[in-house]
Description:
The chain has 306 residues and is an alpha/beta fold. The protein has one domain (4-298): P-loop containing nucleotide triphosphate hydrolases (Rossmann fold, 3-Layer(aba) Sandwich), CATH 3.40.50. Helices cover 26% and strands 22% of the residues. The chain has 9 helices and 10 strands. The protein has helices at residues 47-54, 94-97, 104-110, 118-124, 141-154, 171-188, 199-205, 223-228, 233-240; strands at residues 4-15, 18-31, 36-40, 62-67, 70-71, 87-90, 159-163, 191-196, 208-213, 216-222. Strand 1 and strand 2 form a beta hairpin. The longest helix is centred in the middle third of the chain and has 18 residues, at 171-188. The protein is globular and about 65 Å long. The two termini are 37 Å apart. Magnesium ion is lined by residues 47-48, 163-164.
Amino acid sequence: MSLLSVEDLVVDHRSPDRPPVRAVAGVGLTVEPGEVVGLVGESGCGKSTLARAICGITAPTSGSIDFEGRPVGPLGLRRRDPALTRIQMVFQDPFASLNPRRRVGRQIADGLRGDATPGELLERVGLDADMAGRYPHEFSGGQRQRIAIARAIAAQPSLLIGDEPISALDASAQAQVAGLMRALAVESGAGLLFISHDLSVVRLIADRIAVMYLGKIVETGPTAEVWDDPKHPYTRALLAAIPEPDGSGTLPAELPGDVPNPAAPPSGCRFHPRCPHVMDVCSVREPVPRDGVACWLYDSAEPAAE
Ligand SMILES: Nc1ncnc2c1ncn2[C@@H]1O[C@H](COP(=O)(O)OP(=O)(O)OP(=O)(O)O)[C@@H](O)[C@H]1O
Ligand SMILES: [Mg+2]
């Protein structure tokens, strides 16, 4: 049994004045205990929506999410279900998730389980125990993110989710904080779902990479395989355009056109209007993932005529 098992998940954002946006359009994903899964993809492809659905914050439209063998969702875990505290999220901006008026030690103590003290948790994230008496503004951005991580691990989660936890940090802090999250997850046996648009950092810490495009996972595989031998044309384009060290999400230069509107996705394979290898079938039928790759280039079966 996987720690987290997401199957055919669909999440629509509905608003009264606009057509619904299908931010997550049929995603399958697993995370095993102690495994680090890197989820990558351009801005707007649905990464945060997927993460919020996993945490029970956003209700899925259809599909299933099982965590520790039980369903997560509006009909599953309730707000006060203790199982929800076993999924902890670290967000991009630690300022937004830390209370500016409370000492950080107090904030870490809020969710504390087990015998550790806030000071010990600060030491585990590479800070000094006596910093517990300080306020969030008395730290650097990288230190604040370490505090957010300390607060997350204080709850002894079995699944840690980082939603772009390093993209607000400078380059040197990025690799350190990413490495810290990996180390903490692996040593406690927790799973880590690490969301980033930066493949170069994900490569350093993830056991497995999942590449998302417009609400779908187009390729997934062990990190070394995806990195050394990317199969999906979108993965290849992402690798060819590793973002700038400042983390700005540059669009791959060789990809024509913009990211399509998820409210009206292209027919067939949703990547086909931008794909350098587009074939007739691609605009007509959606590729089924085979060996972790959803692309007609790798589908040996003759597509049936529509
Ligand atoms: N509350 C909302 N209401 C309507 N549309 C939304 C809402 N939240 C997200 N969306 C839309 O859903 C799509 C996916 O957004 P999401 O935030 O999940 O993407 P993301 O991959 O996390 O992007 P980023 O890398 O910029 O954080 C986008 O088209 C976005 O505009
Ligand atoms: Mg996001």
